[in-house]
Amino acid sequence: MLTRLLAIVALVACSACGEAGNAPKPKPTLRVQLDWVPEPEFGGLYAAQQDGLFEAAGLAIEIIKGGAGTPTPQLTADGVCDVGLMSADQLLQLRARDGALVGFYATFIETPYALMAHQANPAASLEQLWTGGGTIAVEPGLPYVRLLQAKYGQDKAKFVTYNGSLSTFESDPMAATQCFATAEPVTMKLKGVACKSFSLREIYNPYVAVYATTESTLAAREADLRAFVGALREGWSRYLADPAKYNPAIAAMNPAMTVEAMNIAAELERPLIAPTGPASLGRMDAARWQAVLDALIETKQLSKPQDVNAAFRNLEAPVTAPGAEPTP
C-alpha cells in the first residue's frame, strides 16, 4: 500500500515538473521612459503597443509617462529605465559628462523646433521675423537662440522669456514665440487664431525624440533592441497612415489634449517624421550629428569635440524574433 502511494506521489510530482518545464518563458521587458506626456509625437510607439507588434516581436514593453522637466538622459544613463527619449543635443551633452548613451532611433528626422508668428505679421522668413522689431518669447539659453543671435543680431527685437503661456502672444499681432511644431500652432488653430511657423532647421536641425540606451545595455540586449526598432518602425507606418485609429486611446491617457488636437498634430508632424517616406523612419546620419555638435561648441554649450559615430547606431530589425532560429 505504501509503495503504491509513493508511486502516485512521484507521478504527480513528475507531472508538475513537466508542466513547469513546458511553461512559456517570460518575454524580455524593456522599460521606455518618455520625455513628455502621451501625445502624437509618440504615436508610433502607442500604435505598436495597441496592435500587439511588440508582443509579436517577443517583447514586453512598459511605457513610462514623462512631463515637464523629466530628466530622461540621466534616468537612462543611471539605468532607471532601459530606453529613454531625448533630443540629440541632450544626448551629446550627457556624453560630454561621461554618460555612455547611444541613440538608436530618431522620431523627428526634421526638427520640430520653430518660431511662430501671427499670419498678419509681414515677415516672410526667419531672418525677417528675427530682425522685424517685434517681441519674441524665447528661452535665452537654448542653442538655436544663441545661433540666431550670432547670425542675425539681437538689437532689433524685444526679447522676453518664454514661460509656456501664449496669452501675450495671442494679444499682440506683431509678437512671435518659440514653439514645437505640433503643439503651440495646434492650440492657436483650435482658438481660431491664424498663425504661421518658421522652421529652425536652416539654423539648427537636431534629431528630436531620439530613443537612446546605454552602451552596456546595447551590448547586452542588442537583439531585443533590434526587435523593438522593427516593431516601432511598423507602428509609425501604421500611425502615420491612420492616426485617427490610435489617437482616442492616446487622448484617454492625456485628457488635457483632445482627439481633435491630436489629429491636427499628427498631420503637422508627418513631414517631420517621414520626410522622404517610410524609408526615412528613425534613421540618422553622422553629418547631422556632427552639425549639432558643432553648434553646441559654437554656442559654448560644450567645450570639447567628441566622436559622433559613437553617439548613435541605426539598428535594423532582425530577420527572426529574439530566441528563434536564424533564417538560413
How do the helices and strands line up, and which of them pair or pack?
Layout: H1 2-22, E1 29-33, H2 43-50, H3 53-56, E2 60-64, H4 72-77, E3 83-86, H5 88-96, E4 101-108, E5 113-118, H6 126-130, E6 135-138, H7 143-152, E7 158-161, H8 167-171, E8 176-180, H9 184-190, E9 195-199, E10 208-214, H10 215-220, H11 222-241, H12 243-253, H13 259-273, H14 286-298
Parallel strand pairs: 1-2, 1-3, 6-7, 6-8
Antiparallel strand pairs: 3-10, 4-10, 5-8, 5-9
Helix pairs in contact: 2-11, 2-12, 11-12, 12-13
Walk me through what this model shows.
By secondary structure, the chain is an alpha/beta fold. The protein folds into two domains: 29-110 and 206-310, D-Maltodextrin-Binding Protein, domain 2; 113-199, D-Maltodextrin-Binding Protein, domain 2 (3-Layer(aba) Sandwich), CATH 3.40.190. The chain is 43% helix and 16% strand. The protein is built from 14 helices and ten strands. It has helices at residues 2-22, 43-50, 53-56, 72-77, 88-96, 126-130, 143-152, 167-171, 184-190, 215-220, 222-241, 243-253, 259-273, 286-298; strands at residues 29-33, 60-64, 83-86, 101-108, 113-118, 135-138, 158-161, 176-180, 195-199, 208-214. Strands 2-1-3-10-4 form a five-stranded mixed β-sheet. Strand 6 (135-138), helix 7 (143-152) and strand 7 (158-161) form a beta-alpha-beta unit. It starts with a helix and ends in a 30-residue tail after the last helix.
